[in-house]
Write a structure and sequence with these properties.
38% helix; binds pyridoxal-5'-phosphate; seven-stranded mixed sheet; globular; three-stranded antiparallel sheet
Length: 368
């Protein structure tokens, strides 16, 4: 059997009639930028996240930039994020003109370690961008407590956490603002690029709306220096067609994750840990093993595709070497980069494929 890492073609095929109807509605409307489809998607996304406002933008990276800029963060400011995130988080921060400062990850939860935050703080720190990596919320209670004490903002990177929860609250409602990506592979994905900012603060929402559209406050009266980062009406319509399925898809992800975790128990390969009181939505199912190459090779031999998210911590990337902090360590992030492996997990996997991956992973782990 061959189990590919992704199955977006299957998801599109299953929803083809709904997606075709969305496309036809937009095509026939004559309205291809802004308009009712976008407004409805924004309202539906805000309701889903449990916040008052959502503002569609062109990508997840732009959502991070827009959220930070809407909160007044820019040149001269420092923004802390996790050293084990994917690079777009840092791209989004740097696009505001602010400086990204990396802090270390919690080696079990894989998210920003609040106990290590103080090392990265300086008098110029204006915001923290915790990344809800792989589908699990960061320790927002502790991060929020520290941020409140210092009077700085917390902006969630929710690109991998659509529908994740801490207690009863959803990702996207846990900070001053949040950034979502709808890149096709995400738990909720467009058929192209798309993103959104969510917030409860009407002023932040209003500034985000201005910033995504050249700061135009109405008919060529520019009140902010913004840029062009709009969410296409067509992508908004396609996302509206998909949003009602997100909960069921996330439940299926959790079911598959539970099956893999049972199979790997005591095998020597460490399954991911779900923090108590939270709902992990397994954007990625990431295990840890010191013998990554052998484990991946054994899985490849039985046709199971794996991947590594991410093979280098941000400061280990050639383009970001200058973000390596002098005088402090980011060892947990570096060790994670050297030992993580992602198994295929998406809602369109069949039970047979899930069983095959679970047994294949168990066998590969025991062969170590
Ligand atoms: C995908 C992703 C982004 C960037 O989203 P784009 O839509 O590709 O710009 C940012 N942060 C994280 C954690 C991501 O996974």
């Amino acid at each position: 059997m061959r189990v590919p890492f992704l199955g977006l073609d299957r998801q599109t095929a299953a929803l083809r009639a709904d997606l075709d109807a969305a496309w036809a509605r937009v095509a026939g409307s004559g309205r291809y930028v802004f308009g009712e489809e976008l407004e409805r998607f924004e309202a539906e996304l805000a309701a889903y996240c449990g916040v008052r406002h959502a503002v569609g933008v062109a990508s997840g990276t732009d959502a991070i930039t827009t959220a930070l800029a809407a909160l007044g963060i820019g040149p001269g400011d420092e923004v802390i994020t996790a050293a084990n995130t994917c690079v777009p988080t840092v791209v989004g921060i740097e696009a505001t003109g602010a400086t990204a400062v990396l802090a270390d990850a919690d080696p079990r939860r894989f998210t920003l370690d609040p106990a290590r935050l103080h090392e990265a703080l300086s008098p110029r720190t204006k915001a923290i961008v915790p990344v809800h990596l792989y589908g699990q919320c960061s320790d927002m209670a502790e991060i929020g407590r520290i941020a409140t004490e210092l009077g700085i903002a917390v902006i969630e990177d929710c690109a991998q956490a659509h529908g994740a929860r801490l207690g009863e609250r959803r990702a996207g409602s846990l900070g001053a603002a949040a950034a979502f990506s709808f890149y096709p592979t995400k738990n909720l994905g467009a058929l192209g690029d798309a993103g959104a900012v969510t917030t409860d603060d009407p002023e932040v929402a209003e500034r985000a709306r201005l910033l995504r559209n050249y700061g135009d406050g109405g008919r060529f009266h520019h009140v902010l220096r913004g840029r062009n980062s709009r969410l296409d009406t067509l992508q908004a319509a396609l996302l509206r067609a998909k949003l009602p399925f997100l909960e069921a898809w996330n439940e299926r992800r959790r079911e598959i994750a539970a099956r893999y975790t049972r199979a790997l128990a005591g095998s020597g390969v460490e399954p991911p840990v779900e923090a108590s009181g939270g709902r992990h939505v397994y954007h990625l199912y990431v295990v840890r093993t010191e013998r990554r190459d052998a484990f991946r090779a054994a899985l490849a031999q039985c046709g199971i595709e794996t991947d590594v998210h991410y093979p280098l911590a941000v400061h280990e990337q050639p383009a970001y070497a200058q973000l390596a902090p002098g005088g402090r360590e980011l060892h947990s992030s570096e060790r994670l980069a050297a030992s993580v492996v992602s198994l295929p997990l998406h809602p369109q996997l069949t039970d047979e494929e899930v069983g095959y991956v679970a047994e294949g992973a168990r066998a590969a782990a025991e062969r170590h």
